[in-house]
Amino acid sequence: MQFQNILIPVGSVVLVVAAYRAYGWAGVAVACGALVMWLLLHFTRMMQVLKRAANRPVGFVDSAVMLNAKLRPGVTLLHVVALTRSLGELRSPKARQPELYRWTDGSGSWVECEFHAGKLKRWTLERPATTLDGVPADPSAAS
Predict the structure, then answer these.
(1) Which of 35, 84, 133, 142 could form a Cys-Cys staple with 61, CB 3.0–4.6 A?
(2) Domain presence at residue 8
(3) What digits encode the pLDDT tens for the residues 74-84?
(4) What is the pLDDT averaged over residues 66-91?
(5) Does 81 reside within a domain?
(6) How far is CA 56 from CA 13, 17, 84, 129, in A?
């Protein structure tokens, strides 16, 4: 279980109790106002990221190589969606852990990300095979 699932509610209660002990009901009003503002900021960020992602095809990214360079373990799925400006193509069964998402660019390269409980654990970059002149090889032309 993640500590954030416990620490944020407990920290909120501790903040409200400390505000009450220090300033009475006026302190509770200020602490609750600050908590509501914090929640609204997170909600607004999430809605902005999803609004940008709604205007793009599912699983598309401008450059898979650049996405690969920007990823790091522990970032959230929302952060990766903000980086790609696109929802990932779900590659695993729904509601099963780990969740696998794939983002593909125009050259056929793709990044597959593995998320456990919403946090990025590992990812792989796959690039299409190329010939000596730098043109992507077409496996169907070999037959």
Answers:
(1) 84
(2) yes
(3) 999 999 999 99
(4) 93
(5) yes
(6) 40, 45, 10, 27
Give long-range contacts, CB 8 A cutoff, 24+ apart: 92-96: none
What range does the domain containing 71 cover? Answer: 57-126
d(CA 31, CA 22): 11
Range scoring the smallest mean pLDDT among 5-9, 10-14, 31-35? 5-9
- C-beta separation of 99 from 112 below 8 A: no
What confidence category does residue 129 fall into, taking pLDDT thresholds of 50, 70 and 90? confident
Q: Which helix (H) or strand (E) holds 6?
A: helix 4-23
Distance of CA 2 to the CA centre of its chain: 17
CATH number at 73 reads 3.30.1450.10
Say if residues 103 and 125 touch (Cβ distance below 8 Å). Answer: no
| Rounded CA separation 18/23 (Å) | 8
Query: Is 80 a domain residue?
Result: yes
CA–CA dist 84, 126 (Å, integer): 17
Same domain, 13 and 40: yes
Q: How many domains does the chain have?
A: 2
64 and 99 in a single domain? The answer is: yes
